[in-house]
Structures
1.
Amino acid sequence: MHIVVCVKQVPDTTEVKIDPETNTLDRSSAPAIINPYDAHAVDEAVRLKEQHGGKVTIISMGPPGAVEVIKKCIELGADEGYLLSDRKFAGSDTLATSYILAKGIETICQDNPFQLIFCGKQAIDGDTAQVGPGIARRLLIPQLTYVNEVTAVDSAKEVITVHRKLDDGYEVVEAKMPCLITVEKEINQLRYSSLPNMLRAARYQPHMLNADELNADVTNMGLKGSPTSVAKIFAPEQRGEGEIIAGSNDETINQLIQKLSDQMAK
Amino acid sequence: MGCEACVAECPHQALYMNDEGQCNVLENDCVDCGQCVDVCPVAAISLPQRAESKEQSNNTSDKNVISENKTEEKAVKLEGDLSKYQGVWVFIEQREGEIASVSLELLGAGRELADKLGVELSGVLLGSEIADKANNLYQYGADKVYLLEHPGLKYYRTETYMQNFVQLVQKYNPEVILMGATTTGRDLAGAVATDLGTGLTADCTALDIDPEERLLLATRPAFGGNIMATIVSKKHRPQMATVRSKVMKMPKPIFEQQGELVKVDVEIDESQLLTKVREIVQQAGDKVNLQDAEIIVAGGRGLGDGDNFKVCYDLAKSIGAQVGASRAAVEAGWIDHKYQVGQTGVTVAPKIYIALGISGAIQHLVGIRGSDIIIAVNTDPEAPIFKECTYGIVGDALEIAPLLKQPLQQLLADKKAS
Amino acid sequence: MPKKFDAIVVGAGMAGLAAAYKMSSEGLSVVVIERGDYPGAKNVMGGVLYRSMMEELIPEFWKEAPLQRPVVEQRFWMLDKQSVVTSGYKDESWAEEPYNCFTVFRGEFDRWFAKKCEEKGALIINETLVESCIVDDGKVIGVQTNRPEGDLYANVVVLADGVNSLLGKQLGFHREWEPQQVALAVMEELKLPEEVIEDRFNLEPGMGTTIELFGQGTMGMVGTAFIYTNKQHISIGVGALLSQIREKQVQPYQLLENLKQHPAVRPLVRGAEPVEYYAHLIPEGGYNSIPKLVSDGVVVVGDAAQLVNGIHREGSNMAMTSGRLAAEAVIHACNMGHFDRDALSSYENELNNSFVIKDLEKYKDASHLLESNPRYFNNYIPTANMALREMLTVDGVSKKQKQKKLTKSILGKNGLFTLGKDIYQMWKAVR
């Protein structure tokens, strides 16, 4: 079984600091990490490989520095990794990104067709959850989003059964392979990588692919290939400075209750 | 645009901000490495088309002017290919015949957009045996309902919903499509937008119209809520957006309101389909309804450890509130992810939001701004949450929360009685 | 994949990376195991990066390494409660290549240094804890990590695992450090605009300064405080012997707050926003507490070997030099094909001949003297302040009278004999 996993390098948004005065970002403090959901996608792919045999290939689009994220995936047990990196990709929105990744997958799977594609359910920097479905549509394969358990893989019938997360439970869905799956974090507990995998990753040099190597239409990439653009950017509105209630605990609570009471009477 | 993300990233110090807050390139120093392009949160930088990207930033400042509340003005008619797209659509999400509240909220938001554009608002309802739900939609503002009924549409599946939705769009050419940013809405929106090759903006917090170009102005938080970006899709129709539940106000239904029902033929050949929903398993105890909670007691890292988190449960229980948590508390493993409030969790809009030991990371604040009253308790007087709360108490949540129980209980009981 | 490496380096700090760089440059197969998320993640330095030792490894490193500011001035402040006696040295030639030393951010610098090692062929494994050395027949033959299938073998293990070297302890090279052998240092990074820093510290654009503060900076405990200028941050820190911090029951952050409130320091840090806080142990035992450095299949370098000059606040240079010398010994051993104690002993010999051991030996009693004799910190520094105050305050009293009063006050406090003895002892300790 050939499983392709799409991963993204993201700034650790928990660490992004912002200067409220100038509304500027302090990026020096935000390290680049693998999108956390994607790490679970890689782990799930590796688990399936361990059960059913085959190969796990990583694909990512990003700046040259994103090779670090692919090396992280090798630590997690992936076999190969490809980084799609080209100035022509820059400025891609989700539509253009899904095009580039789909073309990338076609390119690297020319001689070894995939049965499954895994993605994280969304990236923590954009939170759009659009690229996974986009790739599925471009490759014309079924998509199973928000999956929190893979219950069965029938290689002979080429059918996979999963649980898709719902607000109040889950649904059991079957799909014909090849198909694309986006995963929730709870699909697995990330395993601690073995030392041999760590050593392999430290040595590993991911394959690099540029736009010309994709057999793709460059007008569908980057800014040109992106229907959406940014009209403006601004600081989030604040609700305004809160009223600080001070005093001893008892006083504070009395005051608070009084104020609440007044406010709710309005 | 002024965020300076690119300037910090450039390894060759070839970027700077000019006085108007736009990014400029020192041509001699730039080696076209592309690092800046990838960090731009709003995709405003490009290397091959440098001149264009500058032009764009200029346009941007013009746009700032345009988008400032020209709501009274009637939108212009477009010419050319884009002119055939007319109307605002809302995807009506239902399960087992129950319409998702976010869809009704979107009818309210869609009504405003449609009025500004001078077009009809339509609901698109897919399912099995749900015709009677259409009336409901007129009451919430729909002029028209497209009804697609078929046993094969009983449960949401990407392939059946997507195919039928795309065909419908191609037949009737709406200019704006709104969907709830639920698991279903996001699943469908991503697939539909790809098939239509059009622009989609996820998780919008505000929607408006630029009447000059009939553009949907879709505003969403970027960088974990640190900045807001307004996204447009200038040359593509339909313009799509998803919006989370509780972000838009639920409109007041007008019961006598009527509309037009358009029944659409649906053909589904089950043997050709690649996915099957085998079973839906409800886990009653699992449902955490933060979105609809009237009162939320949420805890954060400031509580110190997982055991201390029980002050939240105690207080919540005594006043009939739902428990929530900050990302820090969830990541520390004190409470399950489904309780997470904020940009990566749930957006909430309760009457009272009590934040215990939550410092107020921006991504958390983004998710609670819709609350009527925010009460924050934190030991750090500098905590950002004090800038966003209604009432702030600088103190130890572990001491204060138990003291709040009785008086709050009393207050709420009094209010209920009156 | 070679199952066995030439060398395993435990810890990606200055000493470990220096050793790894040198060994991999010579074609040895080297793996560096770091417990932090990345090299430098856990590294703190209350000091500066010395050009000369780094250049012995990577010539003209300043052209590409991530550095903050070249240091053109070193100031020395003796603080009393409200006052300060200052001295210092500023040299324009330090502002030009090849420079003297630099302020650096360790997180940034160590990552760059690790990349350089990787370019030479070393493997860097992060987020991995070495739990113990694998010992066979008295010889160290590898390490056991906390990862699945986590054993790794090598001809030599280089212990660069920092001040609290667990592995050194396990091998019986040293005992648990005594509280008077380590200092606790706390440090903050304060953010300020570049120009503000340059104005406040009287610097040309891009240049840096360091200030070492004695006396009230440590609330009278044996230790020092420091202020360094980075590009857009000021590093301010204070360190004192752990034994005295315990004895006086001072909270480390109180030391820092106290320092920031001192009238001489306050204007330098005014309005600066704290962005990072670090606490770190620094070996202060000096010459007398250097553990066993070499055994069969293993060498110890850097802080793990207690190679820090407490008096001159030098540690990273000793770490680098010890790492490099250890690497040379390993290379030598590889050539011979033996890895026992004798084969590696050239490390110890070279270290003894280098400035590292010579300096440590020279100051071996100084720290102890300062600790056992509180007069240096608690009397002489205030006295120096008082002396200048008296001489410089113009109040109509004649200078001669003031001198008389001063002499009386100094002698009255300590007595001529004590003063003489203290001066003699200090001279003896540092001569």
Note: Chain A has a mean pLDDT of 90.
2.
Amino acid sequence: MRLLGILLLSLTPFLLGLEYRIGLKKRRDFLRLFKEFIIFVKEQIRFCGREREEIFTLALNDPRFNTSIFKRLDIALKNGESITKIFDDNIDIRLKPKEIYEINAFIIDLGKSDTEGQIAHCDYYISVFEQGEKKFIEAYSAKSKLSLGLSLSLAAAMFIIMI
Amino acid sequence: MDKKILVERFENLLDYLPERIKMPLFALNPELKASVQEIRLRAGRPLTLTMSGSQFFVCKGGTYMLPRADSYFVTPADLNDCFLKLCRHSVYSHNGELCEGYISLANGHRAGVCGKVVLRDEKIETIRDISSINLRIAKEIPHCADEILRYYNGGGILICGGPGTGKTTLLRDACRQLASGRVGNCKKVAVVDSRGEIAAVCGGVPYTDMGSTADIITGVPKAKGIEMALRTLFPDVIAFDELGDMSEVAAVTQSFNSGVTVITTAHIGSLNDIAKRPPVSALLKTGAIEWVVVCRKGFNYTVKRAIEFDESERTVSV
């Protein structure tokens, strides 16, 4: 029993480190997905001239975007609710304040100008998210390895100390 | 039109307005609501309503013919909010209409938009910095064209009159009746609705009753639309609003020579002004028009034979 307790306690830092890695991965995947979403929106505006609400409804029919966050975004837009609150309340994907700000800024100005203006708006945010993605990938690989190494070391140290 | 329907149409339009402006309009009594023709928003100026062709200012105490200290003023932010609601937050998807100065709304209403026009290569690219919006309430008056159609025997009809005299309303009802079998069999009526004022098509659906056998072409110049209708729709009747230039007269001549009846409208004050409008006098010379309807304010109209301009006339009030 003592051994089991020590094992479980030792595993805790490792599990925390694993959770941190998974959180980073989810954040990375969401930012990539949102960039794809902006590309989707741009195509709908450029080639179909669909209204904003229609674009969101169409996006939800796409398996890539049929997720709870996009559904909540759709509802928030229809009801005039806060976009930032969706991400503040979301414990599954923890975005940084700067990332939430960029998403909010993209959506708030969506539909406010003519076709050319909207395509430029989408292009700007595609490049913002691409640059963000590059920086994130560099940081992710470093942080991910570091967190794995640290958590394993801490787990081993705790095991040795307690045993 | 039923008063309840008119009030409902007025209240439908209020959804496009910011709350600050919506509330005083919602509080108006039903008689006033039923008589409103337009809601006009102008940046930095009082909110006005058009009723019976006159302007009334909306104030805290009611509506008055002159502005007062307690008039409701429209701010640029109100205009911007209204504009985004009219475009359903998708300005880009209404660019074509904006270049013509209007936005088509559900239920057949239209919003005329004024602002700073952006030109590119001498063509209108878009409108921005909206300075005023005119929300025009769509109204149909069924059977207003009854008296005109009493004379109909396949000959063309020209409906003339000044602004706000009901020319488009008469044209719309004439098309509806012809396409509904109220004048003989149902006629195949091709409506060339360049500016969306006749059939109020929104999302492919006409929001006014155009009858069962009407085909509606929207967004195309009238002369081109008439040509398209002749070639592809094989109509019995072609209808379009506001005869403009000689290209349209040429298209009408082609229709007439193909055995198709034409019903159209023209901006002229009286038959004496025909000579001042070369396209109108050229149209009458083609022989395509058998009856001329002259409309006056208060929805009075007179029907006259085009060729003879004789005593064969009736004055009708609707």
Note: DSSP finds six helices and no strands in chain A.
